[in-house]
């Protein structure tokens, strides 16, 4: 089962997809946020393009695991998104995904090259999705 993952931000949405077996996640890029309608249309196109059967949305809980204002915003966004997509939308804890993505990019960064924020967003979505895939297998 192919799964699409989203790491929601104020300006961009990081996007990752699993392989067809649902084993490995890879970053695919970002959606530059415009309006909910345009965001949802872009996400729907990605669902169709990759043949995704589920969408995972990163839920930014606090370090204590509590629901704060950002998590509430993401929950409302995901709920509205779920009403527009033909596949299930599920929230998944995204704590530490950006930190892990930064570490990955630092490891693979070539000397003299600057890290683009869009790369970070997409890699964070892949870290989120890989965590989901591994938890599902366990």
Overall form: globular
Largest sheet: 5 strands, mixed
Low-pLDDT windows of residues: none
Order of strands across the widest beta sheet?
3-2-1-4-5
Describe this structure in words.
This protein has a single domain (3-137), classed as YqgF/RNase H-like domain (Nucleotidyltransferase, domain 5, 2-Layer Sandwich). Strands 3-2-1-4-5 form a five-stranded mixed sheet, sandwiched between helices. With 138 residues, the protein is of the alpha/beta class. The radius of gyration is 14 Å and the shape is globular. The model has no long low-confidence stretch (mean pLDDT 87). It has helices at residues 36-50, 69-82, 97-108, 117-137; strands at 3-8, 12-18, 25-32, 54-59, 89-93. Helices cover 45% and strands 23% of the residues.
Overview features:
138 residues; alpha/beta; Nucleotidyltransferase, domain 5; five-stranded mixed beta sheet; globular
Concise summary:
With 138 residues, this protein is an alpha/beta fold. It has a single domain (3-137), classed as Nucleotidyltransferase, domain 5, CATH 3.30.420. It has helices at residues 36-50, 69-82, 97-108, 117-137, and strands spanning 3-8, 12-18, 25-32, 54-59, 89-93.
Task: Itemize the secondary structure elements and their pairings.
Elements: E1 3-8, E2 12-18, E3 25-32, H1 36-50, E4 54-59, H2 69-82, E5 89-93, H3 97-108, H4 117-137
